[in-house]
Here is the input.
Amino acid sequence: MAAAIFAAAVARPSARLGPLAVEAPDEDAFTLAVAAAEALPVLPGGGAPSRLDLVGDFGPSAEWGIPEALGWRDTAVHTSSGGPAHLFEAIRGHGREAAERTRIVLAVDRSGIGRGRGIAHGALAVALAIGPGTGIQVDHVAAHVRSPSEPPQPLRPEHLGGRPSGDPVALLLIGDDERLVAAAREAGGLGFAPSVVPKAPPGTGPAPTTPYALALRASDPETAVHPFVLGALGADRDVYVRGRVTGTVAWSESAPAPTMVLSAPPAPDEPQALDARSEGAYVPRARYLENLPSRWRLEADWCPGCGRWTFPVRGACSGCGDSEHLERRPLSRRDWKVEAATIVRPGAQPTEFDGTVALSGAYGVVIARSPEGPRGTFQVAGPAAPIELGTAVTTVLRRLYPMEGEWRYGRKALVVKSPA
Ligand SMILES: [Zn+2]
Here is the structure.
């Protein structure tokens, strides 16, 4: 049985710079990818995928951090740089195992912050769940590399490993490039019905979001097509893909965050910017890593002896001190209720948050209660604003502060605005 994309989820960044949706100071490829993966519908069997492909410009923490944050302990992780060719190779997979087990592809486009060449497009992360069954099936991928001054390669049947069978065949051209018009004209000669899919979702500004366009197209039963040819033309390569849509793709989005308006791009991740070290709350790396199950996955200990929860975990029951019979259980990541809230104003922050305050000003802190019962203390993601007691918050993985040359991450509370 062939493998197909059966579910897709998207996570958008929560800051704006002019017309572009860009990463907030506490967001990056790692946090966006985790948000997209957490928005996926439950995987078949509820377990971890057998393989995770990271496609895009991920930071150094992502390769071990993403499976850690998602609790995917036995998942094999593979990384490749961005671009449609790598994306579709990852979707197609390799060998027999690729068709038989559930895999996840996480593709991230960053907005180009900190790379010294301006910000040309918005940021977005997409999670694709692939496994046996129906959905979007990728049968053949062909990439043609050329010099940027050369025109795109005209589409020919040999680029597709043979003509797509079945009828109708639609050609989806992803992008807003005028060269696509020429490619569409070529395709007309091959008997395809061309249709240009916008590559940027509304409100993100231009973004090379091929997976977004693909998943959106297939998730809409009105526009879904059966056999398709997809073209994504880049500055120096053309990628053509032949595939089929054999069923609807389940589609979801991560919870929208309150928008932070930036007046200038956040500072790039220069090594010296990561050297900040707090005298107030120095957390050695070993202790940080030891606490990740609670910090990142909200794992708590439940004591069968006295019925108490201990969160964050600390190796012994907070009620009776038992350390031998504790049961590790994950708390819900959503629907925590705020029981106390405050705003930390500039000057009152611990020194490790100096950078946060310099960029974003005051920030909120809440004590919230989980649906299971234990309470936790969280920094609030997004602009500081008064929060009423009883407000429901969801939790999201974000950057906390730089320490010892790396970003430290943890869960923050996110006030989800009602769609009204
Ligand atoms: Zn106990």
